[in-house]
Amino acid sequence: MPSAKIYYDSDADLTALKDRTIVFLGFGNQGAAQAQNLRDTGIPNGKILVANREDSYAEDAKSKGFIVEHDFQKAAKVADVLFLLIPDQVQPRVFNEQFAPILKDTATIVIASGYNVFFKLLNFKPSQDVVMVAPRMIGSSVRSLYQKGKGFPCFISVEQDGTGTGLTEALALSRAIGATKAGAIASSAREETAMDLFAEQALWPNIIMLFREAFSVLKEAGCSDEALCYEMWMSKEPAEIFERAAEDGFIAQLKHHSTVSQFGQLSGALALDGSSAREHFKDILYNQVLNGKFCREFSKIEADLEKEGAENPLNELYRKSEESELGQAEKRVRDRLAGLL
Fold first, then answer.
1. Closest by alpha carbon to 23, among 93, 106, 94, 80?
2. What rounded mean pLDDT belongs to the chain?
3. Whole-model pTM?
4. Do 194 and 290 contact (CB within 8 A), yes or no?
5. Considering 26, 54, 182, 242, which has the largest number of Cβ atoms within 10 A of its Cβ?
6. How many CA atoms lie within 13 A of 97 on its CB side?
7. For 5, what's the count of Cα atoms within 13 Å in the CB-facing half-sphere?
């Protein structure tokens, strides 16, 4: 497979945004960061509108000097560009009911997650542009790196090119939020969704399971709760390892470990037969993620996620997970050491 194209500042023309009214639907972590970056790049404050219900996020936008519109239909009517930055599970209802019928025929819709576009849950007019500008960092880092004059990793794509100028618009928006300084990577809603859901449903569940089972084995061998919790994660060593991996390389970071650790990790990893894990991962990717099975099942419980207590399936998942040996042990340790943590 060929390497992905990477776009830089020189590929983007900010004049494509001249006189365009840019609406941010949502002013959370990403919305706040991207709106401020846009303004600092030179987009007039009067051309940026925050569409948000009356809540603390709206108050935050006002405190930062942005114009806030609580009436979504009014915001939709003036939008030339719409950043869709509310949670995935509420996007279809809010967008399809309050924005889609009113948006201009030539509006550009900007997504930061491929989920709802890949699974065709949003209603777009054929004449509209749908582009993905998806920073691969949390909003606070998107903002702080911009302020330091640095860029950040970002995925970019054109999912629907209704006007014929979708890429020009996507590149201009990427540059305006600071993404092309480090390089915006050409991607797609399919690729972003596949990687995102795969990590959430295959990679990280296995990591959680491995920690849970390792904890139990070492507990049986006589290790204390306190020693295990600190050795395995509370010392923040895993976080430091991943930070080093990002800076030095996934394998090269091992050189910061002791020789005993390096030898044990490398020889142990090479000795493991990953074929069963690979088959498990492929099953999740093709028979749960890409075929839409998870999306269909998740859609059935979306309304329940707004409920309180045991009626909320997410709360039940937390309850069951916290009842594990690892979960109970950590609670005891944190209660005991509350004043020291």
1. 80
2. 95
3. 0.90
4. yes
5. 26
6. 6
7. 9
